[in-house]
Amino acid sequence: VFIYGNASMSAKLRFYAQFIITAEGVIATILFCILFAFLFIVRFDKGSGAYRVFLLVSSIHGFLLSTMLIPLNFLHLIRDGDFINIALGFGTDFIPLEYFNIPFLIFTNLVSYSWELVPTASVLQFIALTKPKMSLFNRLCLAYLWPAIAFVFNYLYVPYFIPAPAYREVLARSARDFYEINDHDRIYVYGFPFWPKTENGYISAIDVALKFAAPTYSISYALFLLNVYRIRQQLTVNGIRLSEKTLRLQRQFFRTQLLQGLSPLAVLSVPFSIFFTVTLLGYDLNRFSVIYSFAIWFTPIVQALVMLSYIKTTLNKQMSGST
C-alpha cells in the first residue's frame, strides 16, 4: 500500500513512526546486551564494586525498557485536549485488555526511572570520596534510597494514566480516527485530558504534572546537581589526598556520570517541555506528537552509549597496561 502511494498521510505517519520506535527499541536492546557482556569481561579496580552494581542496575533497567518497547510500540498523540498513549505493537495480539494494565504499569514505571535513577551514581561517588570505609551494602542503600522513595510516587500516581472505562472509549476513538486504524485492529490506549473532565473522574494532566512528573523530575536532578557540585569540590580541593590512580578513576567516573545524567536531561527536555507547554497552553500537536515519542524512546540508547563509553575506556586501559 505504501509502494503505490494509496495510503493516507496519517496511515503512512503511523507506519514510519512504528518503524522508528521499533528500531529505537532494537538498537537499545542490542547495546545493552553488549554492555552486559562487557560488564562480565572487564576487570574493575578494587573498590569499584559499587560502580559495577550501578552499571548493572542501570543496564537491567534500560534493557527491560527497550525490550518491552519492541512488542508494545507505544506511540503518543496529543489531540483534542487529550494526551494519549497508544499501544500498537504485536504484543497487543497476545495480551487481553483486562491484563494489559499490568505490563503498562511496569513499562510506565520503567520510563519514570529514566530520570529517577539519575542521582544514584553521584551519591555513590560522593560516598566513595568522603566515606571510603563505608560498606558496599550501606553505600548501595544510600544510593538507591531516592529511587525507593520515588517508587511510592510511581505507585500512587502512575495509575492516573489508566483512564476511566468510558473515557478510554473516547481516547480509542480519537486514536483510531486520527491514525485511520480499523475497528477490527486491536489497540490499547491510556492517557488523560489536559484539563479535568467529569468523564475521567477529574483526573487530568495537571494531576500527573504536579503530583508525579514535576516532583520526581525536579528532586532527581536537584540531588544530582547538588552531588555533582560537592564531588567537584572534593576532586579539586581534596584530590591531592588521593593516589594518582584513584584520582584518575574518580575523574573518569565523574565525567561518565555527568554524561549519564545530563544526556537524558537534554533528551527528556524535549518531551517534558512539550508536555508542560501543552498542559499550560492547550495546544494540539496532532502529527507532531511523534516528536514526543521519538525523543523519550531515544533515551535508553543515549544511556547505553554513555555506559559503553565508560566501559570501553576502562577496557582500553587494561589492555594498554595502564591500570
Task: Describe the model.
- With 323 residues, this protein is mainly alpha-helical.
- The protein is built from 10 helices and 3 strands; from the N terminus they run ααββαααααβααα.
- It has helices at residues 9-41, 49-72, 97-116, 119-130, 136-143, 145-157, 165-179, 205-237, 244-281, 289-320, and strands spanning 74-79, 82-87, 188-193.
- It is elongated, with a radius of gyration of 22 Å.
- α1 runs parallel beside α10, α2 packs antiparallel against α3 (97-116) and α4 runs antiparallel to α5.
- The longest helix has 38 residues, at 244-281.
- It has one domain: Rhodopsin 7-helix transmembrane proteins (Rhopdopsin 7-helix transmembrane proteins).
- Helices cover 71% and strands 6% of the residues.
- A hairpin with a 2-residue loop joins β1 (74-79) and β2 (82-87).
- Strands 1-2-3 form a 3-stranded antiparallel beta sheet.
Q: State the major sheet.
A: 3 strands, antiparallel
Structural class: mainly alpha
CATH domain fold name: Rhopdopsin 7-helix transmembrane proteins
**Backbone CA Rg:** 22 Å
The ordered string of helix (H) and strand (E) elements is HHEEHHHHHEHHH
Strand order of the main beta sheet, please?
1-2-3
Approximately what portion of the residues adopt beta-strand conformation? 5-15%
Assign an overall shape: elongated
Average pLDDT score:
86
> Which architecture would the CATH scheme give at its second level?
Up-down Bundle
CATH class, anyone? Mainly Alpha
Organism: Pristionchus entomophagus
Protein name: G protein-coupled receptor
Keywords: Membrane, Transmembrane, Transmembrane helix
Transmembrane segments: 15-41, 53-74, 94-115, 136-157, 202-226, 258-283, 289-311
